[in-house]
Amino acid sequence: MSRKAELVVKNINVNFFSQEEEDYISLTDIAKYKNSDDPRFVIQNWMKTRSTVEFLGIWEVINNPGFNRVEFDTVKNEAGSNTFVLTPSKWIKLTQAVGIVSKSGRYGGGTYAHKDIAFEFASWISAEFKLYLIKEFQRLKEEENERKQLGWDIKRNLAKINYRIHTDAIKGNLIPL
């Protein structure tokens, strides 16, 4: 089950979704901070650097048992050269990566990345933007936790009340005096 939400960071709407208790933040939206007309080129420029490819590879090795290390080594060896081009779709297809997700469609489409990767991308865009993104993301997560806690307390109290009603009914109707 996935859940979509949106943050506002430095007047940029940044979408994210949660899936299997992992958060994926829109790199496309973050890239709009640097180039609102064509953010995909910002993402491609970031992905063509050797340090980015190494970071993505390490993240996948740690988090993805199905990661194709052989293809990763090929990509890593080419990274940084003038002719090297890497798109999110190509990265996913070659390496079976799970840290980056490419969604098609006009609304909600774009490139999303696990929050670890998205924060790294935000660092490359702007240190200031990254800090605001982290603060806003943490604020939203704290609000979610408070709502979950409130829901848990309500359920616990209802169970406690129902238990008392149930035991009183048993005492009054089933247990002989």
Describe the protein's architecture and organization.
There is one protein chain. With 177 residues, the protein is of the alpha+beta class. The chain has one domain (2-139). It has helices at residues 27-31, 39-47, 50-63, 69-78, 88-95, 115-125, 127-173, and strands at residues 2-9, 12-19, 22-26, 100-103, 110-114. Strands 1-2-3-5-4 form a 5-stranded antiparallel sheet. Helix 3 runs antiparallel to helix 4 (69-78) and helix 6 (115-125) runs antiparallel to helix 7.
In brief:
By secondary structure, the protein is an alpha+beta fold. It has 7 helices and 5 strands; from the N terminus they run βββαααααββαα. The model has no long low-confidence stretch (mean pLDDT 87).
What order do the helices and strands come in, and which of them pair?
Blueprint: E1 2-9, E2 12-19, E3 22-26, H1 27-31, H2 39-47, H3 50-63, H4 69-78, H5 88-95, E4 100-103, E5 110-114, H6 115-125, H7 127-173
Antiparallel strand pairs: 1-2, 2-3, 3-5, 4-5
Helix pairs in contact: 3-4, 6-7
